[in-house]
Amino acid sequence: MCLDSLSCPQRAVFHCLVEGIVKGEHLYSRVGFYFSLCVSPQRGSDELLSGSMYNSPSSGLSSISDTTSNGSDSKKLRVEDRVGDAPPSRVLHIRKLPNDVSETEIIALGLPFGKVTNILTLKGKNQAFLELSTEEAAMTMVNYYSAVTPHVRSMPVYIQYSNHKELKTDNSNQKMLLFALHVIQMVSSLLVTDLQSGGTLASGSNSSDGCGTPSSPVLRIIIDNMFYPVTLDVLLLKIFSKFGTVMKIITFTKNNQFQALLQYNDPNSAQQAKVALDGQNIYNACCTLRIDYSKLVNLNVKYNNDKSRDYTRPELPAGDGQPPALDPSVVAALGKDSGSLLGALSPLSAAAAAAAAAGRVALSGHSGASGVLLVSNLNEEMVTPHSLFTLFGVYGDVQRVKILFNKKDSALIQMADMNQAQLAMSHLNGQKMYSKIIRVTMSKHQTVQLPRDGLDDQGLTKDFTNSPLHRFKKPGSKNFQNIFPPSATLHLSNIPQDITEEDLRVLFSNSGGTVKAFKFFQDHKMALIQMTTIEEAIQCLIDLHNYNMGNNHHLKVSFSKSTI
After folding, report:
1. How far is CA 100 from the centre of its chain?
2. Residues forming beta bridges with residue 176, ordered by sequence position
3. What crossing angle do the helices spanning 8-22 and 174-196 adopt, rounded to 10°?
4. Would you say the C-alpha torsion 287, 289, 295, 299 has a positive or negative sign?
5. Burial classification of residue 376, based on how many CB atoms lie within 10 Å of its CB (0-12 exposed, 13-18 middle, 19 or more buried)
6. Exposure winner among 116, 304, 316, 513, fewest CB in 10 A?
7. Which long-range contacts (CB under 8 A, 24 or more apart) does 73-78 make?
8. pLDDT attached to residue 476
9. Tens of pLDDT along 73-113?
């Protein structure tokens, strides 16, 4: 956007926002003040909602909830806050907003996912409509918040697709509102770029004591006395995620100091993290955290790599850096420094960090979270508890599986712990299983209950607690080092000496796929086999992991990071 092309009022707005930032005001406060003066609330009318799905008590607002009958399958399906069947739209309907919510706070929900192009608030109904620039951005926002409940002023709000494809508002101030939205996003982007390149426009602190009303969801972090390396994964995995959902993070070096900008999904989480962590040591007697509020509203992350991550946009390219696994020296330091902020990381915790590093999931640090997953959109004609056990068992030790009696395209899967559940969710959400794209989210249930004695649940619930097929029950197992996302290439092990390449090609072809390439390792006890698609590889893993090859040789199958 060129300033010369702006009208006088528009230039005034732009300079007003930038001036406020330079003077030490947070962007939220200037934008909120601007809205209060120039943009009268878009209260809308009942016309927008009349005749729509939102007024219909039978419309089914929402998605499947896992509050279905977990204990007794004889109960009727009970669904709470179901998301409706509205098709994806770039217009989103937001419900259960606080009474005094501002337009700025509503816009902040959408800014991390793309450009916000319009807003309509229905103050009397505690609802709003938010329009994003693309349907893809809206889908990313809905998918993200289906797994992580958004909060406004510490109150949970609910987001779903609207039946409307665009917002049409006649308010005379609407052009100015849209321009203000554009300026907000542009100024945020400029400030991030300036800070990363060593500028000083946003280098000040908005507040130093962490008290009072939190003003920013973005924290500026400086690490003093840095004797041990501190990576992006360390910042996210074990420290800041304990206080809320981390959405974006940018790390950089300025004035020979390691620094980071970290964005939560709400200012309250940022305030809690600042109060609790400012002045604390990451490791014993070193790596001291100095934390202030940033003046930025939203971080503009271009790459998912070892320097920056946007957990709301896993499709971003890696750029020059590559997302690393957790540094071994860091893991060693964690194990030694029990008096620091961090404790020792288990191997699966490190794997969960690597999954987060790849931008596949935001690791939330909410206490009381369980290791139970809700899996939906399953092929109910094909799926079985054992097939889910085998697939999800690639990422952790599955304890129990329950296919819901009254909704057989959905299942609850209990992993051994929260880290394993997040790891499985990060890798399997959106993958194709039996020709259907499955959805994996965290469940509200703490455990998967077994059916009552004498109750026949048609084999829909299975207890795998004592299964000999758990991959991670042995401490120090090499399986901890070989956890990879689903891929078309599979790693085979425990192959009998008399089995030939042709035998394995035929075996895997009979599972319904096409073998594209094959490679034996030198000892012929292990091999790589490449299928045409990831879906075919998933099918082969489900069918052939632990397959009896004769003479008590059970084939071991896992995903590989290699190609042939």
Report:
1. 29
2. none
3. 40
4. positive
5. middle
6. 316
7. 73/404, 73/405, 73/406, 73/451, 73/455, 73/457, 73/460, 73/461, 74/405, 74/455, 76/406, 77/404, 77/406, 77/407
8. 59
9. 433 333 333 445 678 899 999 999 988 888 878 887 887 77
* Core vs surface per residue 7-18: b (16+ CB within 10 A) or e: eeebeebbeebb
Q: Is 454 left (phi over 0), alpha (psi -120 to 50) or beta?
A: left
At 531, list the tokens: 């299928």
pLDDT score, position 226? 72
As a whole number of angstroms, the distance between CA 39 and CA 184 comes to 14
Residue 481 pLDDT: 67
Rank 198-207, 288-297, 480-489, 500-509 by mean pLDDT and report only the highest.
Answer: 500-509
Decide if 207 contacts 215 (C-beta within 8 A).
yes
- Which residue is listed with tokens 């950089």? 252
What the block records as the tokens of 123 is 């103050």
Alpha-carbon separation of residue 62 from 159, 362, 372, 515, 535 (angstroms):
9, 22, 20, 41, 28
CA separation, residue 496 to residues 524, 529, 530 (Å): 8, 16, 20
The position carrying tokens 């508002």 is 169
Q: What is the Cα–Cα distance from 384 to 373, expressed in whole angstroms?
A: 16
Report the Cα–Cα distance between both ends of the chain, in Å, rounded. 47
Q: What are residue 22's phi and psi, to 5 degrees? A: -60, -35
Sheet holding 439-442, edge to edge: 439-442, 372-376, 411-415, 398-403, 461-463
Mean pLDDT value across the chain: 73
Distance CA 70, CA 78 (A): 10
- Amino acid letter, 498: D
Q: Are 226 and 258 in contact (CB under 8 A)?
A: yes
